[in-house]
Fold this sequence. Notes:
The protein is mainly alpha-helical. It contains 16 helices and six strands. It has helices at 32-48, 55-59, 62-72, 80-91, 105-117, 122-141, 171-180, 187-197, 201-205, 236-243, 258-282, 287-291, 303-313, 318-325, 330-336, 341-346; strands at 4-7, 13-17, 25-29, 212-213, 218-221, 230-233. The strands form two sheets. It has a three-stranded antiparallel sheet, with helices on one face. A three-stranded antiparallel sheet has the order 4-5-6.
Amino acid sequence: MMATFTKRENDWWQARVRRKGNETVSKTFPTKEAAEKWARSIEFRIDRGDYTNRSEAEKTTLADAIDRYLEEVTPNKKSAIQEKNRLLTWKNSKLAKVSLLALTPGNFAKFRDERKKAGVSAATIRLDLAPISHLFNLANKEWGIPVDNPIRKITLPREDNSRDRRLLDGEEVRIVAALKQCKNPWILPAFILACETAMRQGESLDLLWQNVSLKNKTAHLIDTKNGTSRTIPLSPRALETLSELPHSIEGKVLRLTKSALVQSWGHAIKRARVDYEKEMIIAGKTKMEIAVDAMLLDLHWHDLRHEGTSRLAARFMMHELMKVTGHKDSKMVFRYYHPRAEDLAKKLE
C-alpha cells in the first residue's frame, strides 16, 4: 500500500506508511513536501529490507528507561543502593528528558570531560556510565527498543588502580596500638584478619561462624565480589584471633558495620599519626623531615588486601594464591602482588 498524507488542524501534514508484514509508521511535518520525502525514504528502506522502526526509541526518554531499569534490574544487584543513587542523579540531569534515539556519543563524552575537569576519578566516572551503558544494551536486546549504545563509542577514562602501598616497618605495631584504644572492640580483629587472609572488606564483614572451621583451619566465603564462593586457609595468627572472639546471636564473626569500620579506622590512623609526629618532634626532627615521612599517611583499608596478598604470595604459588584471593585472572593478582625488593633480594642469596 502506498503512503497516505493527512493535513492536521494545525496545518501540519501527517505521513503514514503501511506495508504488508511491517508495522504502520507515521510522522508529522510542517509541509507536505517534507512528509512525502520522508515517506519515500521509509518505503525505499522497507523495500530494501534494512528498515527498523525506531518510534519506540524516539518516544522513550532516558528518564523513562531509568525508571524501568530501577524497577526491573537494579534491585537484583549487590550494589543496588549505590546504583540507585547514581541513576537518580542521571534522572535529574539535563539528558533525562532526551529520547534514547536522540542521545549521542557526544552527550556522554561531554559528561565524561566535565567530570574529569571537576576532579572526579576515572573509576568513579566509569561507574557512573556503567548502568547507563547496560541500560542501552538491555533496551536493544530485551526491551524491544532498537537503539545503539552511544557509550560504547566513546573512550572511557583509564583507571589507575596500581597502588602498591604496603605497611612500612614499624607501622603495624603503631596501628595495633591505636586500634586497641578504639571504643569499638571489633576493629582490631578485623584488621588482623584482613592482613592475614587478604579478605575483602565486605567478605570479612559478612563472614559467619557457621562457615568457619577452627579445626580444619579454614573459612568458607559465600558472598564474594565475583559471585563465586571459595574456601580460604587460616594462618596461626588468624586462628588465634578468631578463637578469642565471642560468638554473636546473629552468627556474624565480626559485629561491625561498614560505616563503623571506616570511621574507627580513620580515627585510629589519624591518632597514630599524631602520636608519631610528637615522637619525631621529641627526637629533634624538622617539620620538613616529618612532612616527607610516609609513616601512617595515605593508608586505606583496601591497602590491607594488598598487604595480605603480598604476605600470602611469599608462601603460595600463583595458582594457589588465586584460589585464596578469589581472582579469576592472573593479571588481577599482579595488581595486589607487591613483594618488597629487599625480600626478592634475599631469595638470590
